[in-house]
Specification:
The structure is a homodimer of 500-residue chains. The first copy, chain A, is of the alpha/beta class and 500 residues long. Chain A is built from 18 helices and 19 strands. The first copy, chain A, has 4 domains: 87 residues, Beta Barrel (Barwin-like endoglucanases), CATH 2.40.40; 62 residues, Transferase, Pyrimidine Nucleoside Phosphorylase, Chain A, domain 3; 204 residues, Pyrimidine Nucleoside Phosphorylase, Chain A, domain 2, CATH 3.40.1030; 81 residues, Alpha-Beta Complex (Aldehyde Oxidoreductase, domain 3). The longest helix of chain A is centred in the middle third of the chain and has 17 residues. Chains A, B: InterPro entries: Glycosyl_Trfase_fam3, Glycosyl_Trfase_fam3_N_dom, Glycosyl_Trfase_fam3_N_dom_sf, Nuc_phospho_transferase, PYNP-like_C_sf, PYNP_C, Pyrmidine_PPase_CS, Thym_Pase_Put.
């Protein structure tokens, strides 16, 4: 409880603890002695005008000398500190917004101002993982009122970096809970920007899936662009398909999402705030949400999807975003390829109007592009789908796609993996069910997304009549070891593709 | 997603991260590359037959050479590993019991078997702080059914170290939510063991308060005893008043309590499981719970206390523990001293039947000792209080106390602090309210519990008629700086003692 102030010399140990700031101090330093180390102590570390909160780890060795302190990499960055500089360590005064987290834990509704303070403290790095986890848990399981979700979304927008684009009508599209192969984004961007709307699409890389849109596009064109580069592409072509990783659209969400993944939970409130805050920060005014529903998709029932849809629309309305949710079929993958290069191949086949292009991917892209054209207000209701089809069939969408790729740095054809293995039907029948999750897992075990050409080619959608010995899907891998690894997993799995 | 197994050489860096195991690995090692570091990665580390789960920190410096790994101190201890030994690092398979935590987050009731698995995984170190925080939060705010609290308590008992004592009737006493100065324990132990019951009392040190019973007793006699020493004292004298820190009575609770303190929340379910599991593990069959209620006590209303009382009694009954809850007055400190030596002085005054002994401390101790005598079944209902009084008045309790101190290693008189400052009434009137929390804070700022003789002497209980200039309380400190520190805080505080 003593509030001594300590001056210590900073020594870098190079320990990366991610977003949570850590301080490393010798067990014989004043703070360790006076604070006691039993209570997961947090301290304030100050370097000139910059100050952070850090969790304390005690060093019981000679890697630090008397009078030295070390900091985790994130803390070093936040403090902007150089080796040998002097920092001040002091007692941490209580963080007010944690009182609101406690209030939420005990079931109370929070105000807009309280969410603002919580989110600001999260962005400032004032919460430890323990606090972040408690906040997420307290807000999960339908414990957030719609007003609270609106407040959380607004707080995330207010703390994010805001993008500005040329053009009046900025459109975007988002898919809730990825479905393997559901790579409609590059097709939609090509169609709507060929029409004349502005669609500055920044996508994510895969975190737990076999491919994100950024991974898939990277097979064809550079996606790691600076904000300046992205702006130039959009100014020139009206659209882009880039990686959005460094945009800091919602820094609070970037932190919360890591903890949610560690907990393996998705709460609808956080999900809505996450998606919509990023859309607003990205400068979008009109957004189509693709919401696939299926037994092995993220949303497992139409009821659950409708519940989420209603909440999402309410929040969008409150924050001034024109939004339409399209509930789609999530019973099976879209297109054939699962994995960056295989999905890129499907995307190109659709854009090129190739005779063997997967019809489901084409139709899903046209559905969403049509809805987006109508949502923009530039196309009358009922005419979007036909117009999108006309733009695609005419080759204008493909031309626009190529132009965007050129603007992003060039175009190349997807490579094909060297190793492959066919999985065949064990009996005659009709495909009745597909396990998206296990099919994704096979693709990941085969090397996707790091090995771009690895993955799965899924050939027999639900309803396909198959004969014993017919190929159901093909596993692709860039190395023999990984192919074997995927097959080893498959040897213990039954019924990924169910035939009846 | 790749499941490579890596052999690495262990190097100690001496970093103490408390209960959460951490592994430190270079950014160029296989695991860091293949697992990706974005997702708060956890890995399995194996040393021979021992295996732990650790959270990964990535090292971006030369403190580790290629092929080396370091581990936090807790992980080193759990693996029993020596510098230079070779460990295996592998992918972590999902921890099943986290599925039950998720289920609880989404509002489902858990079974006894599910709590057993959760608590076992916590004791095994398989939960990160993120998971622990989610479990605590999901169980807080009246989200646990009584059957769940029983299951949690039983799971904690099953994973704890169990103590065994000579004698048939082992009794204990616990106070929920400490009240400053409420140091009845040494007096109660002396009375009931003088009577012939066995009361092997192990107490805690202060974590957030100005003194725990162990801190107070340490002023008078050694309290850091081994289990063997404690057993010898109890065999000889029928009672002890030792520090229980190393007893491992409920290792899951020891971990959960740290995270609860970081969150600054107390949930009734965890509280009941914590207290009762430790009592059963400590070998007690009969327990009195002191439950002080007051505006600035932990329990703020009689209704809240009664709710907790009913739940606690139900759980005790289910696990075969004879328990009685005594709701007491928590409006103000008990006795005069707040801080180890000042409280020890009060305890000795009561035991010695000194004419100036604080009456409230004496009467509270007699009330609880009387209840405990009756609960044991050896004393008839209605006779406990008089019997306790007789034992105290006769000097037998003091004799027993001295004998226990001698058995624990000797007796010494409490020291008196050198520096003091009197806080005086600013007007005439009657004391109507006392702020326990701020009075405790003054005692802590003055140096308690580390500086044993520091603290506060509170002289004017509620109802005292005071004149302007009369001393309300005295601040004691061992150093001038700390006295000033406490006074600086006081200069900004009004109405700690309210006079009307």
């Amino acid at each position: 409880m003593k509030h001594q102030v300590n001056k210590l010399v900073f020594k870098r140990l190079g320990i990366d603890t991610q977003h949570e700031h850590f301080a490393y101090m010798r067990e014989d330093c004043q703070v360790c002695i006076s604070e006691g180390f039993e209570a997961l102590t947090r301290i304030r570390v100050t370097n000139g005008k910059k100050s952070i909160v850090a969790s304390l780890n005690v060093v019981r060795s000679q890697i630090l000398k008397t009078g030295e302190i070390s900091l985790s990499e994130s803390a070093i960055q936040a403090l902007g500190i150089e080796e040998g500089a002097s920092v001040t360590v002091s007692h941490l005064h209580p963080i007010d917004s944690l009182g609101y987290v406690r209030s939420k834990i005990f079931g109370n509704e929070l105000t807009s101002g309280q969410f603002q303070m919580i989110i600001k403290d999260i962005v400032d790095g004032n919460y430890s993982n323990i606090h972040l986890s408690a906040f997420i848990t307290a807000c999960a399981g339908s414990r957030m009122q719609i007003d609270e979700i609106i407040s959380l979304t607004e707080a995330m927008i207010d703390t994010g970096h805001k993008m500005h684009w040329p053009g009046q009508c900025i459109v975007d599209k988002h898919c809730i809970g990825g479905l393997p192969g559901n790579r409609t984004t590059p097709i939609i961007v090509s169609i709507v920007s060929a029409f004349g709307l502005t669609m500055p699409k920044t996508s994510s890389r895969a975190i737990t899936s076999p491919a994100g849109t950024a991974d898939t596009m990277e097979v064809i064109t550079p996606v790691t662009l600076t904000m300046e580069q992205i702006k130039r592409v959009v100014e020139k072509e009206g659209g882009c398909i880039a990686w959005g990783g460094t945009a800091m659209l919602s820094p609070a969400d970037d932190i919360l999402i890591k903890v949610e993944k560690a907990l393996d939970i998705d709460s609808e409130g956080q999900l809505i705030a996450s998606v919509l805050s990023k859309k607003v920060s990205a400068g979008s005014g009109h957004v189509i949400i693709d919401m696939p529903v299926g037994e092995t998709a993220k949303l497992r029932s139409i009821e659950a999807a409708n519940l989420l849809k209603v909440q999402m629309e309410k929040v969008a309305h409150a924050i001034g975003l024109k939004l339409k949710v399209v509930i789609t079929d999530g019973a099976q993958p879209v297109g054939r390829g699962i994995g960056p290069a295989l999905e890129a191949r499907d995307v190109l086949a659709v854009l090129r109007n190739a005779p063997d292009a997967p019809v489901d991917l084409r139709e899903r892209a046209l559905l969403l592009a049509g809805e987006l054209l109508e949502l923009s207000g530039k196309v009358d209701a009922g005419e979007g789908n036909d117009l999108a089809r006309k733009i695609l069939d005419s080759g204008k969408a493909y031309d626009k796609f190529l132009a965007i790729c050129q603007a992003q740095g060039g175009f190349s054809e997807p490579k094909v993996a060297k190793y492959r293995h066919q999985i065949k039907a064990e009996s005659d029948g009709v495909v009745v069910k597909v396990d998206n999750r296990r099919l994704s897992k096979v693709a990941k075990l085969a090397g996707a997304p790091d090995d771009k050409a690895s993955g799965v080619d899924f050939l027999t959608p639900i309803g396909t009549k198959v004969e014993q010995g017919q190929i159901l899907y093909v596993v692709y891998a860039e190395s023999k070891g990984e192919l074997e690894y995927a097959l080893e997993y498959l040897s213990s799995q039954k019924g990924i593709i169910e035939i009846a």
